[in-house]
Amino acid sequence: MATQTIPKSVKILLGIAAIFMPIFLILPFFFWGNSDGSINLSEQNLQAARLQPVGKLVIGEPVNPATSTETAAAEFDVEATYSSTCAACHATPALGAPVLGDHDAWQARLDSKGGFDALYESGLNGVAGTAMTAKGGANITDEQFRQMVEYMLENSNVSY
Ligand code: HEC
Questions:
Q1: Residue of 77, 79, 90, 116 with the most ligand 1 atoms within 8 Å of its CB, for mutation
Q2: Cβ(105) to ligand 1 under 6 A?
Q3: Tens digit of each residue's pLDDT (9 = 90 or more) over 80-104
Q4: What residue owns the CA closest to ligand 1's atom 26?
Q5: How far apart are alpha carbons 22 and 78 in whole angstroms?
Q6: Per-residue confidence at 35, pLDDT binned at 50, 70, 90?
């Protein structure tokens, strides 16, 4: 007989599968239903699902140019700019530049200019006949250069 060719172990496995199959078929109905356990396949719901657009256009927050400039300014790394640009001349007195941390040198410059704004503007435009070109040759905005001068003074313990 054909049934005798099926090993007993296979029959047992099939038997177990036969018992569990309905459970797997029925279980989802408990989970897919509403919170009260019922399945909500109403006409309206099915229609709503069919009418769902294929893609939804999400209109995000418009980018505010003012805000993004502020972000850029906030991200400006004063310390890194000093190291990459200003330090070449301002870390040593060799070129005649006031050295970062030299309180007396920076205080004297602040005094001779008569204030922060004048000192800032001098650096912004460059000091004619010296190695100090406009903005020290840095590719930064005026506002960022202002921050650089503040950094110089603060790190030289000069109040302005
Ligand atoms: C190529 C060399 C060089 C670089 C780079 C440089 N400086 Fe200078 N800087 C000088 C020299 C030299 C002086 C002194 C000029 C003088 O004799 O009045 C000076 C002076 C200054 C002064 C004072 C100006 C005044 O009128 O007394 C400021 C402020 C200043 N630098 C800021 C900066 C900042 C900020 C940076 C970097 C963004 C920078 N410098 C990069 C050489 C340099």
A1: 90
A2: no
A3: 999 999 999 999 999 999 999 999 9
A4: 122
A5: 69
A6: low
Query: Which residue shows structure tokens 């001349």?
Result: 89
99 lines ligand 1 (CB under 6 A): no
Q: How far is the CA of 5 from the centre of ligand 1 (A)?
A: 97
Token digits of residue 25: 């078929």
Cβ of residue 96 lying under 6 Å from some atom of ligand 1: yes
d(CA 79, CA 12): 75
**What number does CATH give the domain 77-154?**
1.10.760.10
Residue 23 exposed, middle or buried by CB count within 10 Å (0-12, 13-18, 19+): exposed
CA-CA-CA-CA dihedral for 118, 123, 126, 129, to nearest 10: 90
CA-to-CA dists, residue 26 to 14, 20, 76, 123, angstroms:
19, 10, 61, 80
Domain residue spans of the chain: 2-51, 77-154
